[in-house]
Specification:
This protein has 355 residues and is α+β, with helices and mostly antiparallel strands. The chain has 2 domains: 232 residues, SGNH hydrolase (Rossmann fold); 100 residues, Beta Barrel (Lipocalin), CATH 2.40.128.30. It is 29% helix and 28% strand. Strands 6-7-8-10-11-12-13-14 form an 8-stranded antiparallel beta barrel. Helix 4 packs parallel to helix 8 and helix 5 packs parallel to helix 6. The chain is elongated and about 75 Å long. It starts with a helix and ends with a strand.
């Protein structure tokens, strides 16, 4: 049949409209057909229907999120069961599958205070999707949550690193995370990036945290829970859960502080101090003059207690060693410094406040 110019234009316009409805697979909502997925999706909808407005917290993602029911079940019981949380993670899911689920029952009747989202690693396999496309897919999920659940705050978690050593795929995920950070507005959408905690100092990934270099162990889930606890508690408006050391999870002391300690004339002296906490390890430095610093060594965090050592070289060639101990109380640190000078023990009380 011969098309008239007008009909040809209409057909072309229809074709272009259909082809551009979705720019790429990562943003095109799509279900999966395997029985395990279909059954779990149906189970989600049943759970959602039964909990309704009682649900306060959602976890949305793939097999790493689903793993809260496996290796992470004890951590989940401690951190999230009492918060009426729902796990909406399905192994193998990509952004397009999550988008479909959010339109097909996973959010029906819910009014949670917070949703934790970590998705995208399965889109990064091979040449399946480019970094730009994966960012689009994750962004589409956040936008859908904001549209369907306007009162819900979203905590977007950076995609975890994967593979034992440096790799092209790990680099791809790092690029994606750099762009995803821009999705957070720190008003309704917040950002959490603690992937470095799953790596050794040399960049390798320890099997004790990710046995297959992708999925978390119990200890890995503990790191995840404690890394977001302060943000989750703030979103929910409840008390933070105690961490594995017996202190308050989420009370990370990392940041800039002002340490106040008596000087030689017993008058208080303010000294800039930087603390860097990584789980139970504590690092950082304390200013010594305008452009010199003493590095924190042997730093440890045990609950609300902190200990570390400072070493200062003296003009006579000797080294003074300061044993520092303190306790975090209502956002401030109260502590004691002990050292020996010329055979005499010296002890000083000190305090520190955030700068």
């Amino acid at each position: 049949m011969k098309h008239t110019p007008r009909l040809a234009a209409i057909v072309l316009g229809l074709q272009l409209g259909l082809s551009s409805a979705f720019a790429h697979s990562a943003v095109e909502p799509a279900p999966r057909t395997d029985k395990g997925w279909v059954d779990r999706q149906a189970a989600f909808n049943a759970t959602v229907a039964s909990m309704g407005s009682k649900a306060q917290l959602l976890f949305i993602g793939d097999s790493i999120t689903q793993g809260w029911e496996g290796e992470g079940k004890e951590v989940w019981a401690k951190h999230y069961a009492h918060r009426n949380a729902i796990n909406l993670g399905i192994g193998g899911d990509r952004t397009q599958h999550v988008l479909w689920r959010l339109d097909n029952g996973n959010l029906a009747g819910l009014k949670p205070k917070a949703a934790v989202v970590m998705i995208g690693t399965n889109n990064s396999n091979g040449e399946d999707n480019t970094p730009e496309q994966i960012v689009d897919g994750v962004r589409a999920i956040v936008e859908k949550l904001r549209t369907k659940l306007p009162e819900t705050q979203v905590l977007l978690v950076a995609i975890f690193p994967r593979s034992e050593n440096f790799s092209v795929q790990r680099g791809k995920l790092a690029q994606i995370n750099q762009a995803l950070r821009r999705v957070a507005d720190d008003t309704s959408v917040f950002w959490a990036d603690f992937g470095h905690k799953f790596l050794n100092d040399d960049g390798t990934m320890p099997r004790e945290l990710m046995p297959d270099y992708l999925h978390l162990s119990k200890k890995g889930y503990q790191i995840w829970a404690e890394s977001i606890e302060a943000q989750v508690a703030r979103m929910l408006g409840d008390a933070p859960v105690q961490d594995s050391t017996g202190g308050t999870a989420g009370n990370d002391v990392s940041g800039e502080w002002v340490l106040t300690i008596p000087g030689p004339d017993d008058q208080p002296v303010d000294i800039p101090m930087t603390l860097k906490q990584d789980g139970a390890r504590l690092g950082g430095r304390v200013a010594r003059g305008a452009d010199k610093f003493l590095e924190i060594a042997d730093g440890q965090v045990q609950g609300d207690s902190l200990t570390w050592t400072l070493r200062r070289d003296r003009p006579d060639g000797n080294t003074m060693v300061y044993s520092m101990s303190g306790r975090l109380v209502n956002g401030k640190i109260k502590g004691k410094s002990e050292t020996t000078m010329d055979g005499n023990a010296i002890s000083r009380a000190w305090t520190a406040r955030r700068k």
